[in-house]
């Protein structure tokens, strides 16, 4: 079994999709054992608590900076025997010091078809605004491994979503979540959890 930590900052609808997928058996080789938030007010924390999942709040402010926050997160992951880290709306770019420790052990969901509309500065509604400004007729979501390049790691899964003429950044954001993110994130988490579990069994 792969122990999963989900890192969040906000509403946590992707976390909810993962919790639901574990309950329904879509995720069967992994277990969400910890949710870490860098924002004490994140609704994602309530979702975790409602489902009996341990939580930790680790903020940059309380730690005194980004690198101290990352060290605290690493310590917490180690204490909890975490095998796989899922970034689900985690609004902080992790340094190479962090990503280098977890090669092919961190995955992220990004709300576009990478390599379009990704990298530093492309987050939240900005991604969908950029897609609409470009006039693309198809967008989507991408699950990828996280390395030192923002949105630059190996792609695990993608799903396309059609753009309608009357879409706004808000309607497109919602469509991409419903039609792509909440579907492929659980599938990708199961795929990676399975391969980590198999390697653990061999040890
Ligand atoms: C999603 O759009 C995700 O792609 C992005 O941040 C948003 C998180 O939403 N990385 P939620 O907190 O999972 O509801």
What report would you give on this structure?
- The protein has 203 residues and is α/β, with parallel strands linked by helices.
- Helices cover 42% and strands 22% of the residues.
- The chain contains 7 helices and 7 strands.
- The protein has a 7-stranded mixed β-sheet, with helices on both faces.
- The chain starts with a strand and ends with a helix.
- The model has no long low-confidence stretch (mean pLDDT 97).
- The structure holds 5-O-phosphono-beta-D-ribofuranosylamine.
Task: List the topology elements.
Layout: E1 2-8, H1 13-24, E2 30-37, H2 43-50, E3 54-57, H3 60-63, H4 66-79, E4 84-87, H5 96-99, E5 106-110, H6 125-134, E6 138-145, E7 155-162, H7 169-202
Bound molecules: 5-O-phosphono-beta-D-ribofuranosylamine (GRF).
CATH topology descriptor:
Rossmann fold
Strand content: 15-25%
> Percentage of helical residues?
40-55%
Number of helices: 7
Low-pLDDT runs: none
Distance between the amino and carboxyl termini: 13 Å
| Mean pLDDT over the full residue set | 97
Under CATH, the homologous superfamily reads Formyl transferase, N-terminal domain
The CATH architecture can be given as: 3-Layer(aba) Sandwich
The distinct ligands, each listed once, are:
5-O-phosphono-beta-D-ribofuranosylamine
Please tell me how large the radius of gyration is.
16 Å
CATH class: Alpha Beta
**Helix and strand sequence:** EHEHEHHEHEHEEH
Query: What is the number of beta strands?
Result: 7
Shape: globular
């Amino acid at each position: 079994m792969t122990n999963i930590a989900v890192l969040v900052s906000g509403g946590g609808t992707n976390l909810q999709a993962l919790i639901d997928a574990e309950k329904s058996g879509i995720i069967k080789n992994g277990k969400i054992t910890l949710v870490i938030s860098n924002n004490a007010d994140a609704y994602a924390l309530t979702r975790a608590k409602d489902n009996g999942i341990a939580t930790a709040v680790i903020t940059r402010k309380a730690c005194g900076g980004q690198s101290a926050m990352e060290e605290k997160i690493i310590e917490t992951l180690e204490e909890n025997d975490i095998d796989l880290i899922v970034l689900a709306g985690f609004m902080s770019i992790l340094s190479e010091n962090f990503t280098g420790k977890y090669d092919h052990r961190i995955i992220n969901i990004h709300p576009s078809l990478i390599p379009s509309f990704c990298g530093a500065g492309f987050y939240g509604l900005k991604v969908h605004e950029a897609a609409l400004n470009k006039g693309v007729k198809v967008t989507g979501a991408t699950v990828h491994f996280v390395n030192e390049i923002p949105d630059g790691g190996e792609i695990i899964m993608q799903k396309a979503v059609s753009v309608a003429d009357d879409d706004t950044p808000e309607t497109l954001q919602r469509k991409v979540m419903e039609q792509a993110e909440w579907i492929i994130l659980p599938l990708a988490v199961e795929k990676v959890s399975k391969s980590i579990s198999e390697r653990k069994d061999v040890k």
